[in-house]
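Batch 3, record 17
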Amino acid sequence: KEIMVSGVAYDVNVAKIALFDVPDQPGIAYRLFKALADERVNVDMIIQSAKRNHTNDISFTVVQDDLGTAVKVVERIKAEIGAGDFIFDDGVAKVSIVGAGMITRPGVAAMMFEALADAGINIEMISTSEVKVSCVVKGDQIKQAVQVVHAKFDLAAD
Amino acid sequence: KEIMVSGVAYDVNVAKIALFDVPDQPGIAYRLFKALADERVNVDMIIQSAKRNHTNDISFTVVQDDLGTAVKVVERIKAEIGAGDFIFDDGVAKVSIVGAGMITRPGVAAMMFEALADAGINIEMISTSEVKVSCVVKGDQIKQAVQVVHAKFDLAAD
Ligand SMILES: C[C@@H](O)[C@H](N)C(=O)O
Ligand SMILES: C[C@@H](O)[C@H](N)C(=O)O
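Prediction for the assembled complex:
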């Protein structure tokens, strides 16, 4: 059956930032991303998972040149909103599978995760859309990550 | 300046599930989503944020009819991989802004978050791609969420 993954994309110009234990109430996400926008920080992925208590974590990625500015913003906002800790890391990269309508096919994301797992590559962040499954991994593993994902979907590596 | 948001999409056939404190090591994401795929569960969003210690949380959404099956799978996998707690909720819905190349424009996501914040709507989950910013909110707030996001971007509500 057709898997419908048309390609593997990757991006090495990636830095991740995560702000932990933010108050889970209206207006918090707005304040953080408004502050980043005011500093002209280009945010790529924004990821917020579900939580069970009254706080949540928000992580996002930026281009590496924006990391310094983003960290300053996060430090200021963290104090203003009463968040907990934060971390940042520019030693990461993003690998994605792209395809039309694939995300609703059971198993496509699992195949990508399997390729990375079999290569011993830890998945740090995951985000999806109908046409894309993106994983953030350690930067020094991106070459191998792209290779094994290509191979898993029988796509010729570029 | 052009904001490039072409529309607001929403989906009320949404249930969220979150599995907490999964071991943050290769193979875990694979095992969870392989098990779901084997049961033909259609997964929409997959969200995993960054973490600072040796565990992570993984949340995802499914169509409401698949929630029962998904919960059984998560219960079994939770035991197998040694994860912590999990939660699920079918009283949620998804609202998204869609547009070409908008996610890299600072401020577009912040505007969507502002619209929801001003309406007192709490954002439970966030996921983005280059052409889409999606927020999961309480199901009984979806109508208002769609209205205020439409208004924020000067789009006529359908
Ligand atoms: C955590 C953050 O997303 C919050 N729930 C908000 O609505 O802004
Ligand atoms: C938490 C989970 O994503 C794990 N890091 C994995 O690679 O499968």
